[in-house]
Amino acid sequence: MRRSLPALLLAALPLLPASLPAAADSATPSKASGSVPAPLAGARAPEQVMATLFDAIDRLPIAAEHREGYDRRLYKHWNKGLNGSDGCNTRKEVILSEAVEAPQVGERCALTGGSWLSKYDNVVVVDAARLDVDHFVPLAEVYDSK
User: CA-to-CA distance for 67 and 94, rounded, in angstroms?
Assistant: First the structure.
């Protein structure tokens, strides 16, 4: 369980700010001026937050995964999208929503032009056919973890 802790901590980061002291506002002297702002009332120290997080992780149920009965064909590959009559399946709807520069949408949702920025490596893609759209968690893993 401790091996996957770094990934879990990264996933939990958006949850932590509610427990950590907030940044000082402009009316409060900064550390640069030699004064340290007082912590918020009821705020917990980072080590207390981490101890609580570790306790919560230790309470997560652990069960064996099961693949029996899994069949990828049980899950539709691409459905017809939000508007089944416009020709844009879910894949193309995702591509349209992620565009930095919107492409032209032609008959049967043919996409031309446009650009996309990869959040993983900052590469700009200008050909929608080169884009992959997939699940963040593979369907087989979701099935195993039920």
Answer: 29
Yes or no: say if 109 and 118 are a contact pair by the CB < 8 Å rule.
no
Q: Which domain holds residue 46?
A: 1-22+42-62
Cα separation of 114 and 98, whole Å?
A: 10
Q: Are residues 79 and 58 in the same domain?
A: no
- The answer for residues whose C-beta is within 8 angstroms of residue 91's C-beta and 6 or more apart is 78, 133
Identify the three-state secondary structure at position 22: coil
DSSP states of 75-101: S-SS---SSTTSS--HHHHHHHHH-SB
pLDDT per residue as tens digits for the range 76-85? 766 788 887 8
